[in-house]
Amino acid sequence: MAASDLYKPRVFIDADVLFAGAASPSEHGASLVVLRLAEITLIKAITSEQVITEAERNLSAKIPDALPSFRLLVSRCLQVVETPTPLERGMYHGLADNKDLSILVAALRESCPWLLTFNTRHFQPSHPDVIALPPGQFVQRIRHLMAQLNRNA
Predict the structure, then answer these.
(1) pTM of the predicted model as reported, rounded to 2 decimal places
(2) What percent of the chain shows pLDDT beyond 90?
(3) Which CATH number fits domain 8-152: 3.40.50.1010, 3.10.50.40, 1.10.287.470, 3.90.190.20?
(4) Which member of 38, 57, 100, 111 lies 3.0 to 4.6 Å from 122 by CB, making a disulfide possible if both were Cys?
């Protein structure tokens, strides 16, 4: 890990956020804003191979014209990691909806305290080291922190 990465917030991106960012009709949607924050290196955005597969499959079925934007975002904004193994998932059984458990486990494994998803209820009761929240709430938190910087300048 580069020394500069030590100070960046580590954020795990779920498939629905990636889908929304790639399909966004506006540059101002929270999902795309989060991905742009990663593109300009203000945050470290991480996702898993499983997420990429799911988002690409959904885009292919629903909005195939968004696939070029999706692929560009993946290449510019995301670090893609391996999907957790069944053994890794087994250690956290019951902390998330079964089909989304590997997302939570990947976020934990990659030391991401933020898991951005529109399906926060799928990540209950979760793990104390990970906060699942929608991208809009994460952007609001970033704005709040930036406002504090301005007040402290």
Answers:
(1) 0.93
(2) 84
(3) 3.40.50.1010
(4) 100
